[in-house]
Amino acid sequence: MNEPYEYMAAALYLGHPGIDAQHEILFVCYRELMHAVGGHGDGFELTDVISVIKSYVVTHFRYEEDAMQSTDYLDRDMHIAEHRRLEKGLLSLSERYENETDKNAVAIDMAGFLKEWLSHHIAVVDRLLAQHLNSLNYT
Ligand SMILES: [Fe+2]
C-alpha cells in the first residue's frame, strides 16, 4: 500500500497561488522519483520521471521569468542566474543518468539535488519574488 503523498513543507508556501501550485508539482516529481527508484514506482519508470522533471522545470522557470519580465522585477538577473545554475546541475545529472550503469544511484543523487535546491531556492529566492508579485496582485 502506498503511503499518502507529502507535498511541500508548510513553510515553503509563499502565498502566491500560481507559484505555490507549480512548486507542489515539483515536489510531487521528487516523490515520484524516489518511488521509481528500484522499480517500485506507481507505474512510472525512472526514465519517464526524469524526463517529466526536466521538462517541468523549464515550464516553471519560464513562468517565473515571464512574471519577472512583465513586472520589472529588480532582482531579476540574480534570480534568473540561479535558475540557469539549477538547470545546469540537473542537466549534468541527467547526462550521468544516460551514461552510468547504476541508474538508481544517479536517480538518488538527482532526488537529493532536487530537494536541496527546491528547498533553498523556494525559501529564499522565490519568497522575494512572490512578495513582489503579490504586492502588484500579479497572478
Ligand atoms: Fe525561482
Question: What do these coordinates show?
Answer:
There is one protein chain. With 139 residues, this protein is mainly alpha-helical. It has a single domain (15-135), classed as Four Helix Bundle (Hemerythrin (Met), subunit A) (Up-down Bundle). It is 73% helix and 0% strand. Bound molecules: fe (ii) ion. Fe (ii) ion (FE2) is lined by residues 64, 79, 83, 121, 125-126. Fe (ii) ion (FE2) binds at residues 64, 79, 83, 121, 125-126.
Task: Summarize the SSE layout with pairings.
Blueprint: H1 17-36, H2 46-70, H3 76-99, H4 103-135
Helix pairs in contact: 1-2, 1-4, 2-3, 2-4, 3-4
Fe (ii) ion binds next to helix 3 and helix 4.
Order of helices and strands: HHHH
Tell me the CATH architecture: Up-down Bundle
Please identify the top-level CATH class. Answer: Mainly Alpha
Q: Gyration radius, to the nearest Å?
A: 16 Å
Given helix and strand content, the structural type is mainly alpha
How can the largest sheet be summarized?
Answer: none
- Overall number of strands: 0
Q: What is the total domain count?
A: 1
What proportion strand?
A: under 5%
